[in-house]
Amino acid sequence: MQxxxxxxxxxxxxxTMGHGSGxxxxxxxxxxxVFEIFNNDLLNQQHDxxxxxxxxxxxxxxxxxVISPIFFPGGNIGELAINGTVNDLAMCGAQAKHMSLALIxxxxxxxxxxxxxxxxxxxxxxxxxxxxxxxxxxxxxKGKGDQIFINTSGIGIIHPKANIHHNNIKTGDLIVISGKxxxxxIAIMSxxxxxxxxxxxxxxxxNLNHTVATxxxxxxDGIRFLRDxxxxxxxxxxxxxxxxxxxxxxxxxxxxPIDEQVEGACEMLGLDPLYVANExxxxxxxxxxxxxxxxxxxxxxxxxxxxxxxxxxxxxxAGKVVLKTRIGSKHIxxxxxxxxxxxxx
Amino acid sequence: xxYLTEYRNPELVQELAxxxxxxxxxxxxxxxxxxxxxxxxxxxxxxxxLPGNISMVHGPGCPxxxxxxxxxxxxxxxxxxxxxxxxxYGDMLRVPGSSKSLLDAKSTGADVRILYSPLEAVQLAxxxxxxxxxxxxxxxxxxxxxxxxxxxxxxxxxxxxxxILSSHVLVPPAMEAILSDExxxxxAFLAAGHVCTIMGIEEYYPIAEKYKCPVVIxxxxxxxxxxxxxxxxxxxxxxxxxxxxxxxRSVQPEGNIRAQHTIKTVFDKSDRxxxxxxxxxxxxxxxxxxxxxxxxxxxxxxxxPVAQENAACISGDIMKGLKKPKQxxxxxxxxxxxxxxxxxxxxxxxxxxAYYHYQNADNSLA
Lengths: 345, 366
Prior knowledge:
The structure holds two protein chains of two kinds.
Chain A: H1 24-38, H2 41-44, E1 58-65, E2 71-72, E3 75-76, H3 77-91, E4 94-106, H4 111-128, E5 131-140, E6 148-158, E7 174-177, H5 183-189, H6 209-219, E8 223-227, H7 233-245, E9 248-252, H8 260-269, E10 283-286, H9 291-300, E11 308-314, E12 321-324, E13 330-332
Parallel strand pairs in A: 4-5, 9-12
Antiparallel strand pairs in A: 1-6, 2-3, 4-6, 7-10, 7-11, 8-10, 9-11, 12-13
Helix pairs in contact in A: 1-4, 3-4, 3-6
Chain B: H1 10-23, E1 28-34, H2 35-43, H3 46-49, E2 54-61, H4 63-66, H5 69-80, E3 84-88, H6 102-107, E4 111-114, H7 118-127, E5 132-139, H8 144-156, E6 162-169, H9 171-179, E7 188-192, H10 193-199, H11 204-211, E8 215-218, H12 222-237, E9 243-245, H13 257-266, E10 267-274, E11 278-287, H14 296-299, H15 315-319, H16 351-357, H17 361-365
Parallel strand pairs in B: 1-2, 1-7, 3-4, 3-5, 5-6, 7-8, 8-9
Antiparallel strand pairs in B: 6-11, 10-11
Helix pairs in contact in B: 1-12, 2-16, 7-8, 8-13
């Protein structure tokens, strides 16, 4: 994301405890920073909360962002905090409309970094066509946080034709992935202290709401289920699906789209890409009757160029996710246990 | 990926499997040394395409698995000392000690960091002169050169705040310990290709000769493993026992001389207790006296009670090839990756973890 406007003159180079005191420093930070950037009618009421009306059936979602490092190849914690919640709503079949933004800042965060993050939040919110309508800023002592934590909550309007629920999933449905897997997780790992390795891999964090809206508009309830495979990766989402539906998921390893560099990094670190976190992609489980058209439409979208059908729902392996390897053998794909840790040799 | 897809070629895999089936006339038991090989065999379903009279048993070549409980306890103790930053390869963090793992120690406030290279730990020591940085130097001959190099570097930088907790183990003494066990059933070994890339192949000649046991130095991809098995079975069927090199694209007979030199500069061979197996003479590396200021065991007073291994874990029998993971009464029930009884269930190269994570879809549902 590009910086869109220069940082205003603040009295301090770093965020201090005073900026969270609720006093003059907080006021100045909000007036010349937050309100200035996110400027919109609801926020400008400067009330304790935002009052508004929305039509139709609504979806409501919240997520907290504690990523380290806060700046990473392809993005930063700010845009991630917007895209993440926008995408969670999109997976419910909803277009995000209004969001809250809560910042927990560790004292000592450079004001310039704070400004960059706010700019990214603004750019991501504009791109998703969502308004930040209420928020909160707290500052915690050095050592009590990790530079900045962000929570966003969002309200969105569910598309009237959407009917997305795991109860709709049936045997024979096809599993579609909208893009290359494991990109975000490996981009983050490549810059994490102690694990740095040289690569041009960038996070694919992006809002998916417009893409999903186009698909729902066209395919309506042919789309049975949507989920973004963030933490825990593709494996975890599909395990949740099979657990909830008591059906099986049969995946084809050779159909899984993955960037060559990402695959190489996974090999090197000893990580299974099925468990690596994703950002800018989603899994769709769709009626086989629409699958080919669905894939075609998705592939013409900027966010779906590498979309692929990666497997199907079966009644053969009830409650299990099974991977057919490139060699032709089959094995069960379990839930991730704890954190994926790089291997020794 | 170049140099990987070729070795995962499904047609070649099937062709090698056919050839193994064609030449095998008797039952043979082969042990692959390395946990990476075990995982590749299980994950790729290769065990299912081998003829029924070939039994693969899984060796002790998982550094995480063989690290004794007492060494984990030492690491946990050091991590708990004020001002200590304990650095480790990621794999070691979940392994249970007597009372807790390094991950448990981290969650209760210890400064435990995951690094990919010990040289990062040296850098960390340089950047934090007020802290003591200890690197948990685990591994076989593969990680020994880099771990040794970290000591050489720390010495050159005259750092007073860097040390390593050596838990190094060596492959050839473990092979001898297995072959000389009275219950041994191993007919041939697949030796670990990456270990031989460092150490060369000479150490294996006397073992093949003394125990009349074929040794095939083997890689890690499906084609490598099946070719290694084919080479071993060919020897067995012909009554031969020599050292063959399947992994010639990486392994030179003399190994990596510079890496060996670095190891010899910093380490002496020492006795080592292996988890589940016990003491194997001259099967480990300890920091030479010349570098004792970089030896965490000499630098800190480590005061811990004698560790007890969990009696419910049969990891020793598994790593000696006497039992398979599914023969353990606690496999998948009391012992799971989220609450392991022993290291082979948590390590990314552990045999139990391989069986748990990659169990054959059809068999497990039968």
